């Protein structure tokens, strides 16, 4: 297990019972380096959406626990937020939550001379993602060929 995976797993293990206590859902935990800074991010959600106050409560509890356990050797920035629009679908629970929603898909290489698709997420399994596009056609994409899949922005 890499340092990154260890930090994410330990944080997730701490957060899961906390999520039950508050009736929140833990969407994801990630430990990433961006622009020279390390970030430990926890994405949380709940029915009807997460509020700033919800994030603050979880951030305070998580921050105190992290200070006490002190297992992350780098200096990092802790962020607790809602998954937000435009966040990539990565895990099965992301796909489960998004069935029936519109998604944007970007492919590594063109399919039918096109790399970008928008459609309604119909189904997925470990190998494929199925969407229905505007004209009602069902398209099946191989997951390894998908560079990015995320909820579509509706404006």
Automatic annotation (TrEMBL):
Residues 89-155 form the Ribosome maturation factor RimP C-terminal domain. GO terms for biological process: ribosomal small subunit assembly; translation. It is found in: Cytoplasm. It holds the Pfam family RimP_N. CDD domains: YlxS_C. SUPFAM superfamilies: YhbC-like, C-terminal domain, YhbC-like, N-terminal domain. Keywords: Cytoplasm, Ribosome biogenesis. The keyword Calcium does not apply. Residues 17-85 form the Ribosome maturation factor RimP N-terminal domain. Belongs to the RimP family. Required for maturation of 30S ribosomal subunits. This is Ribosome maturation factor RimP. It comes from Hungatella effluvii. The gene is rimP.
